[in-house]
Design a protein that fits this description.
- The complex is a heterodimer of chains A (136) and B (361).
- With 136 residues, chain A is of the alpha+beta class.
- Chain A has one domain.
- In chain A, 42% of the residues lie in helices and 29% in strands.
- The termini of chain A are far apart.
- By secondary structure, chain B is an alpha+beta fold.
- Chain B folds into 2 domains: 73 residues, no CATH class; 185 residues, no CATH class.
- Chain B is built from 12 helices and 6 strands.
- The chains are: A alpha+beta (136), B alpha+beta (361).
- At the A-B interface, strand 1, strand 2, strand 3 and helix 4 of A face strand 1, strand 2, strand 3, helix 7 and strand 4 of B.
- Strand 1 of chain A pairs parallel with strand 2 of chain B, so a sheet runs across the interface.
Chain lengths: 136, 361
């Protein structure tokens, strides 16, 4: 679910292309609302309300009777619906491995690569202190 | 006194028509897209999200475009929009300790685990206008990279707390105050203060923070740590009952270290002022941390003498949407109020002139 929450609808759809998907019925949404984000005083103390974030949720049931839920940050209804569909389909042992390999694993790899690039860029700005000779 | 006034409809329509044209500017130039604003005016977008108290880059970019770049007007638009959405619940508190660091600096320790990571900062630039940017079409900059250490970067405050030199933050799983649901009341608890400051006006907090450094509040702060980067947002949907990752956001956190001379129950130690804001808002996070610490004066048994330590003064005036509403309402028709003022001043003048005349005779 975390992987799908970080992936755009287009990226998910591209990965799903070519897979025979069952029909489904929407039970709720996709609908956009808010979630209140929280911080902690001093970083590790009691919680406080920091501010809200948009979030989109969707619940659906496939023809096979599997129910999928999705909550994703932002307002992309298609992303939430695809994520809910995958949540349902991944519960099906007959489909799980194929879908995981085709959709989740490559998206996760792309996200990990982006995170690694971010970390390498940060590392390049890490200061290496040099001992200065004193002037006395 | 307010009375209903009719008329002006055509004038208002014409004014808004002109506003739309002014917003667009010269039609011969390409129109700004929301993606361009979100990608290239990132810090303006961050500020609107922070003060609009709603994390959504696309909405904040739209608000900025609609507001012609006016950050306070844009924050107002975002606050208004959020009232149209249902709230699905509250997320788990963000784990800033597990942040994927873009920037992390400490002014208290040179060598510390995790190091000094500068990130994409304006610091150390010469603040000279770069006319190369005036020419468009420059090739994308290549960003230097270096092998990254994947260890979790420890908090500076924690390093001090382990030695007993930093006051531990009180723990508690009580439901925090929510100013979007309940009005501000006094004494305001820390959660109410931090929420208020997190969405408070950057300029107001900057000025107040500055005042504490200049002697209005007797602060001697050090930047224990500033960190900027990505944190995962986790939310527990009621139908699942366990937390799931729903996305990630950029935040800036500042821990100010301040001396505390101790009390009857506590030995001398350092205390924290805390700042946390959406996006890359380092100045705001620092100002917030200064003001947070100043507002703790009373609970720490310090003398409350300065504006920044006065919770009612700070918290009632920090919100720029509220402030702009009350200041700008002055331009609305006050014709009847003013009529009564006019009558008043004429009567007072007549009395005073009469008295002057009598005195002269």
């Amino acid at each position: 679910m975390g992987v799908l929450a970080h992936a755009g609808a287009d990226a998910i759809e591209d990965r799903l292309a070519g897979h025979a998907l069952p029909g489904y019925r929407r039970l709720r949404g996709p609908e956009t609302g808010l979630v209140m984000l929280r911080g902690r005083a001093g970083g590790d103390g009691a919680a406080f309300n920091l501010g809200e974030m948009t979030i989109t949720r969707c619940t659906l049931r496939t023809e096979d009777g599997l129910v999928g839920h999705a909550y994703v940050a932002g307002r992309d209804a298609r992303q939430a619906e695809l994520a809910a569909l995958l949540d349902a389909l991944l519960q099906d042992p007959a489909r799980h491995d194929a879908l995981h390999e085709a959709v989740i694993a490559p998206l996760a790899a792309a996200q990990a690569a982006r995170a690694a690039e971010h970390a390498r860029r940060a590392a390049a700005t890490r200061v290496d202190f040099l001992a200065m000779a004193t002037m006395r | 006194m307010y009375v209903a006034v009719k008329g002006g409809e055509a004038a208002i329509d014409a004014a808004h028509g002109w506003l739309a044209a002014e917003r667009r500017g010269d039609p011969a130039l390409p129109e700004l897209t929301l993606d361009q604003i979100a990608q290239q005016m990132t810090l303006a977008v961050d500020r609107v999200m922070a003060e609009g108290s709603c994390y959504d880059r696309g909405l904040a970019a739209l608000a900025l475009k609609q507001a012609r770049g006016d950050a306070i007007e844009a924050a107002f638009l975002l606050r208004a929009y959020r009232t149209t959405l249902a709230r699905f619940g509250a997320a788990e508190p963000l784990d800033t300790g597990g942040m994927r660091i873009a920037r992390r600096i400490s002014a208290t320790y040179k060598d510390l685990p995790g190091g000094q990571v500068l990130g994409p900062t304006f610091d150390y630039t010469h603040r000279l206008l770069d006319f190369a940017l005036a020419a468009e079409g420059a090739p994308p900059a290549t960003v230097p990279e270096r092998e990254a250490d994947t260890a979790v970067v420890p908090r500076v405050a924690e390093l001090l707390a382990r030695e007993g030199l930093m006051q531990r933050e009180p723990q508690g799983e009580a439901e925090p105050t929510d100013l979007t649901r309940d009005p501000l009341t006094f004494p305001a608890d820390r959660s109410a203060r931090l929420q208020n400051l997190a969405r408070g006006d950057e300029g107001f907090l900057l000025g107040l923070g500055y005042s504490t450094q200049r002697g209005y509040g007797n602060a001697h702060p050090f930047v224990g740590e500033i960190r900027q980067g990505r944190v995962t947002v986790e939310f527990t949907p009621p139908e699942l009952g366990f937390p799931i990752a729903i996305g990630e956001i950029d935040v800036t956190e500042c821990q100010m270290v301040n001396q505390f001379k101790g009390s009857l129950t506590e030995p001398p130690q350092f205390t924290r002022g805390y700042g946390l804001v959406f996006g890359h808002g380092e100045r705001k996070a620092m100002a917030m941390a200064l003001v947070d610490r100043a507002l703790r004066a009373e609970e720490l048994g310090e003398e409350v003498t300065a504006p920044a330590q006065d919770a009612e003064f700070v918290l009632y005036h920090s919100d720029n949407v509220e402030a702009t509403g009350f200041v700008e309402h002055l331009k609305l028709p006050h014709y009847v109020d003013f009529q009564s003022e006019l009558e008043n001043i004429r009567a007072m003048r007549a009395d005073a002139m009469g008295a002057l005349k009598q005195a002269a005779e």
